[in-house]
């Protein structure tokens, strides 16, 4: 069964450092998303991406965040200068056409120290 | 805006007990409703969904009915198993909102043998 894969599963970084979280969406899917879940809180939408551009972003997705689809398979989330409050589980998701079921990856746990 | 409220956990049950997890929502527009499940160490998986009023979603013995009049989508299972221990998330998407998911806070369920 096709699946969304995320790497790494756990990343520890020092405050102020840049991190790149990687995702490989399902190959024929066209819409890609990043969500995050701070420990003990809700899963929150960060950004959606379609046709090589951001289609929607939340208030959380400020200038320190960026997304990219550098090739035909990867979808990355970059945090330019990490803060302690960026510590969270980050989930990547993809959908075939934006209307069907969203498939999620297993998540990357980011710990900023 | 859109929001989802679900009962807080943890919910601890014995095997074969009846499970209900309450979920209510507010939405601008006509939402589709979902239950996602997260088993320990895994990503979010779609458990069931309903796209219009009075639809019943069902999967793996779980059921939820889309109740527009009470803006609810409560999850039920008649006889839980230890393997149902997980975190359950109620969520909605509204087509006009770009198909991003709005999640509830999640409910941890622990089933004891």
Q: Can you put this structure into words, describing what you see?
A:
Chain A is an all-beta fold. In chain A, 0% of the residues lie in helices and 50% in strands. Chain A is globular and about 35 Å long. In chain B, the strands form three sheets. In chain B, strands 2, 5, 6, 10, 11 and 12 form a six-stranded mixed sheet that branches. In chain B, β10 (86-94) and β11 (102-103) form a beta hairpin. Chain B is globular, with a radius of gyration of 14 Å. The mean pLDDT of chain B is 93. Chains A and B meet through β4, β5, β9 and β10 of A and β6 and β11 of B.
Strand content of chain A: over 45%
Main interface: chain pair and counts = A-B, 25 and 21 residues
Shape by Cα distribution of chain A: globular
- How would you describe the oligomerization state of the chains in this entry? heterodimer
**What general form of chain B does the structure show?**
globular
The largest sheet of chain A, given as strand count, sense and whether it forms a barrel, is: 7 strands, mixed
**Element string of chain B (H = helix, E = strand):** EEEEEEEEEEEE
- From the N-terminal CA to the C-terminal CA of chain B, the straight-line distance is 41 Å
Give the helix/strand class of chain B: mainly beta
Instruction: Determine the number of helices of chain B (DSSP H or I, runs of at least 4 residues).
Output: 0
Q: Describe the main β-sheet of chain B briefly.
A: 6 strands, mixed
Unreliable sequence segments of chain A: none
In whole angstroms, the N-to-C terminal distance of chain A is 37 Å
């Amino acid at each position: 069964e096709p699946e969304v894969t995320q790497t790494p599963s756990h990343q520890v970084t020092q405050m102020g450092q840049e991190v790149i979280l990687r995702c490989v969406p399902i190959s024929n899917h066209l819409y890609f998303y990043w969500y995050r879940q701070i420990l003990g809180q809700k899963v929150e939408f960060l950004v959606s991406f379609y046709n090589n551009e951001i289609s929607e972003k939340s208030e959380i997705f400020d200038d320190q965040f960026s997304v990219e689809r550098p090739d035909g398979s990867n979808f990355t989330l970059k945090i330019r200068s990490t803060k302690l409050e960026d510590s969270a589980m980050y989930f990547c998701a993809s959908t075939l056409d934006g209307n069907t079921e969203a498939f999620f990856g297993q998540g990357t746990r980011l710990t900023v120290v | 805006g859109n929001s989802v409220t679900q009962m807080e956990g943890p919910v601890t049950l014995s095997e074969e007990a009846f499970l209900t997890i309450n979920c209510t929502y507010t939405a601008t527009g006509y939402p589709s409703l979902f239950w996602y499940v997260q088993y320990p160490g895994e990503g979010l998986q779609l458990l069931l969904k309903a796209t219009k009023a009075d639809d019943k979603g069902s999967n793996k013995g779980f059921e939820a009915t889309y109740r527009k009049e009470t803006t609810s989508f409560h999850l039920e299972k008649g006889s839980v198993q230890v393997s149902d221990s997980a975190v359950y998330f109620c969520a909605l998407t509204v087509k006009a909102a770009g198909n991003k998911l709005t999640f509830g806070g999640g409910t941890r369920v622990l089933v004891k043998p």
